[in-house]
Design brief:
The protein contains 16 helices and 14 strands. A six-stranded parallel β-sheet has the order 1-11-10-9-12-13, with helices on both faces. A five-stranded parallel β-sheet has the order 6-5-4-7-8, with helices on both faces. It has a three-stranded antiparallel β-sheet with strand order 2-3-14. The protein is globular and about 85 Å long. The termini are far apart. Belongs to the histidinol dehydrogenase family. Its EC number is 1.1.1.23. Catalyzes the sequential NAD-dependent oxidations of L-histidinol to L-histidinaldehyde and then to L-histidine. Pathway: Amino-acid biosynthesis; L-histidine biosynthesis; L-histidine from 5-phospho-alpha-D-ribose 1-diphosphate: step 9/9.
């Protein structure tokens, strides 16, 4: 049974299990990374046998396997994948940045140059469930950014990759696909092997081993984020349908026993009705055991004094997914400061964002929406600034720079300017 609280009765840091969790996988992951770094493909083949039961002759998915996948997937679902990809592409095209040049002062040219990463790695889970949506969401922004090569890794249980994953990769434009999962896949992408090229950035969700591996290789490569269990927070008032609110909470609860579903409302009637609906709906779910554990251990209903306070609570929690289930949601939008992705109104369930609408579903969790953003085209670019001064322009400001350098005790910095002033721009 989900627990109800008044705002003053609960600690915000406990809402989404914000306390630091100690895992026992760090040493195991470090050993796997070092093994792959030293032994390369030999280690990867060994881990494929050990973890996936796959006796592979080649780590890379062949062109024949990729082509066959398009015929193995139901054509109606292929059309749905293509339409979702078009929506994702259209949304992310709006995120593209442009170079700029500033020439407002005589003899001075300043600017910024936008450049895509050379190579990106996309990790796609392939354990108890397959997620073609992850392929689309993580690959399409990279393609729009202009990344030269996109490398995908995914576990291949028994040596086979789910054809739906391969079909999504074809639609999204993945360049190469490898049958590798777990921490060993992250290590291969970070360090490179005889078969797997090393990448500049690794994106994509995974289990505790994958998350820990991404954490350990960060610095050698960039990563998108360290994602925690999925979260949803629903702001709802007395006009809301309890059956719908409960269904939306369960849409996240079925992900993981540690997933968090939270309702914040100013209506005791709705709180009680949603609690009853959760009890009715959970036994009907195929993943009822997972949903039950999530709701009982991590689910919460918070009673606010007003919807104004409800919004304040949401901002304090900074959820991954935020649904504003009211009749006039745009009246609240300007007040939202911290949320990964926002779903407005009673006809915008979070599942729209997971699969189809267009905005990215790779989102900050565990309160990190306070300072980070959804995966975007920006994640696959880098920016370089450039500066040009003529001799006259440098002469005009040169002594100021020398003074600045001397104040910091870096005389050689100042001298690099002074010597040019002495030579008069020769």
């Amino acid at each position: 049974m989900i627990q109800q609280y008044r705002y003053e009765e609960i600690k915000i840091e406990d809402i989404f299990h914000r306390t630091e969790e100690k895992t026992d996988v760090a040493d195991t992951v470090a050993a796997i990374i070092e093994d792959v770094r030293k032994n390369k493909d030999e280690a990867l083949f060994r881990y494929c046998r050990q973890f996936d039961g796959a006796e592979l002759e080649c780590l890379e998915v062949s062109e024949e396997e990729r082509a066959a996948a398009l015929w193995q997937v139901d054509h109606e679902f292929l059309d749905i994948l293509r339409e979702a990809a078009a929506n994702i592409r259209a949304f992310h095209e709006k995120q593209k940045r442009q170079d700029f040049v500033v020439t407002e002062k005589d003899g001075v040219v300043l600017g910024q140059k936008i450049m895509p990463l050379d190579r990106a790695g996309v990790y796609v889970p392939g354990g108890t469930a397959s997620y073609p949506s992850t392929v689309l969401m993580d690959t399409i922004p990279a393609k729009i950014a202009g990344v030269k090569e996109i490398i995908m890794t995914t576990p291949a249980k028994g040596g086979k990759v789910n054809p739906v994953i391969l079909a999504a990769a074809e639609i999204a434009g993945v360049d190469r696909i490898f049958k590798i999962g777990g921490a060993q896949a992250v290590a291969a992408l970070a360090y490179g092997t005889e078969s797997v090229p090393k990448v500049d950035k690794i994106v994509g969700p995974g289990n505790a081993f994958v998350a820990e591996a991404k954490k350990q290789v960060f610095g050698r490569v960039s990563i998108d984020m360290i994602a925690g269990p999925s979260e949803i927070l629903i702001l709802a008032d007395d006009t809301c349908d309890a059956e719908i609110v409960a269904a939306d909470m369960l849409s996240q609860a079925e992900h993981d026993k540690m997933a968090s579903a939270v309702l914040v409302t100013d209506s005791q009637r709705l709180a009680d009705a949603v609690s009853a609906e959760l009890e009715r709906q959970i036994p009907l779910l195929p993943r009822a055991e997972i949903a039950r554990a999530s709701i009982d251990e991590c689910g919460k209903i918070i009673l606010a004094e007003s919807m104004v306070q409800a919004v304040e609570i949401s901002n304090e929690i900074a959820p991954e997914h935020l649904e504003i289930c009211v009749d006039h949601p745009f009246a609240y939008l300007a007040q939202i400061r911290h949320a990964g992705s926002i779903f407005l109104g009673k006809q915008a369930p979070e599942a729209l964002g997971d699969y189809f609408a267009g905005p990215n579903h790779t989102l900050p969790t565990s309160g990190t929406a306070r300072f980070s953003s959804p995966l975007s085209v920006d994640d696959f670019i880098k920016k370089s600034s450039f500066t040009y001064y003529t001799a006259d322009a440098l002469r005009e400001v040169g002594q100021k720079i020398v003074r600045f350098a001397n104040e910091e005790g870096l005389q050689a910095h100042g001298r690099s300017v002074a010597v040019r002033l002495e030579k008069g721009g020769e």
